[in-house]
Amino acid sequence: MSRSSSRRTFLTQVAALSFAAPLAAAARGAHAAASSKLHLACVGVGGKGYSDMLETSVGHEVVAICDIDEERLAKAAEKFPAAKRYTDWRKLLEQADIDAVTISTPDHMHGAVTLAALDQKKHVYTQKPLTRTVLESRRLAEAAARQGVVTQMGIQHHSSARLKRAVAMIQSGVIGKVREVHTWTDRPGTYWKQGLERPAKSDAVPAHVHWNNWLGIAPERPYVAGLYHPFHWRGWWDFGTGALGDMGCHILDPVVNALELGPPKTVEAEGPPPHAESGPLWCIVRWDFPGTRHTTDTLRVVWYEAGKQPPRELFQAPADWKGSLNGVLYVGEKGNLFVGFPEDVDLFPRAKFADVKLAEATEDNHYTQWTEAILGRGKTSCPFSYSGPLTETVLLGNIAYRSGKPISWNSAELKIDGLPEADALLRPTFRDGWEVSGLA
């Protein structure tokens, strides 16, 4: 298909979706009134998308599934044979009987698919990071508020007993006011590679892969077997958000949540020289936040990746403490609180907190929390009103690294003051024929 033809097709489909939205909303309203069983659609049904589909569908009906990979689509269809199959999410959204949508695509398509679903007043569960760029996160939070639908970002650890326990203990003042926080992950390297040069070669696109639909809004790029689809896209800026976008939304979540942080004032980063196309081999990011009621007057949060961690002596942990590959250390006026992924809360130095009992907390199902909220039973814990700003904070770390300079963040005006090259990274770019006006 030519570019001009592709553009006309895309714009026609978008217009059709807008026209169909009121009719679809009426159909969904009639269905919801008659039944407590939701009609779910799932965009991206391989890998994490497959488990998202299984988890959210408990007690409900999957009526539509979509994937650009027909082999993955066929596997999902074995589980839900009555669901209609699509390789283009725009076609899926024309189906009128859908109440809610899960979106588990590569990062670069989160914004476009989610906004289209929100515009049809569909309830949405979108995987982390909410979007690939800061502006997209802001726009999705605004759209969710405007449409009044139930939303949830896929950071399931948020609903775990151990993170709720950590949040409760920080907010109760067990370690006093927090003056700094250190966060870390073993990724990338352990799951995918970064610091890559784009290969000059290309491979024939397999018959079961719809490559143009996989690229979506991203720049034109030839297919290379195993390099992008189905998983290693995370290491490329055009498609992913690196280790920070992947794990930062998990690991910085209990920091933002417990300390009730607003937007940072400044962000700086260090690492290997920035690469135009691929994420770093390693990176350390520092955010400076205004103080809150749970912190000292100002707060510094530090991120380490690729196995780097804060100095061991900072923990004040016993010599035989095994540590964690992914974790959070809150440094407070009275001592330290650690929580890991997956380790539970620990307090250091242990002798000082020997008589302190861990807070009680219950485990929630992050997925059914969303479907129950749609039916009017409770609320989601990570709606876009929370997860949008969280994602903005996380992604600003990538911008600080890629720009090579400290950035001053003007959240109110959605701009980076005095650094136009960094400011440009706040916004997505669109391949010809795939423009999304609401995300521009």
Description:
With 440 residues, the chain is an alpha/beta fold. It has a domain at 3-156 and 367-383 and 432-439: NAD(P)-binding Rossmann-like Domain (Rossmann fold). It is built from 14 helices and 15 strands. The chain has a nine-stranded mixed sheet with strand order 13-12-11-7-10-9-8-14-15. It has a six-stranded parallel sheet with strand order 3-2-1-4-5-6, with helices on both faces. The radius of gyration is 22 Å and the shape is globular. The two termini are 25 Å apart. The model is unreliable at 1-31 (pLDDT under 50).
- Give the name of the CATH architecture of the domain at 3-156 and 367-383 and 432-439: 3-Layer(aba) Sandwich
Distance between the termini: 25 Å
Gyration radius, to the nearest Å? 22 Å
What is the name of the CATH class of the domain at 3-156 and 367-383 and 432-439? Alpha Beta
> How would the global form be characterised?
globular
CATH names the topology of the domain at 3-156 and 367-383 and 432-439 as: Rossmann fold
Q: Give the spatial strand order of the biggest sheet.
A: 13-12-11-7-10-9-8-14-15
Mean pLDDT reading: 93
How helix-rich are the residues, as a percent range? 25-40%
Number of H/I helices: 14
SSE order, one letter for each helix or strand: HEHEHEHEHEHEHEHHHEEEHEEEHHEEH
| Portion in beta strands | 15-25%
Q: CATH homologous superfamily name of the domain at 3-156 and 367-383 and 432-439?
A: NAD(P)-binding Rossmann-like Domain
Described by strand count, sense and barrel closure, the largest sheet is: 9 strands, mixed
The count of DSSP E runs of length 2 or more, i.e. the number of strands, is: 15
Poorly predicted regions: 1-31
- Which class best fits the helix and strand makeup? alpha/beta
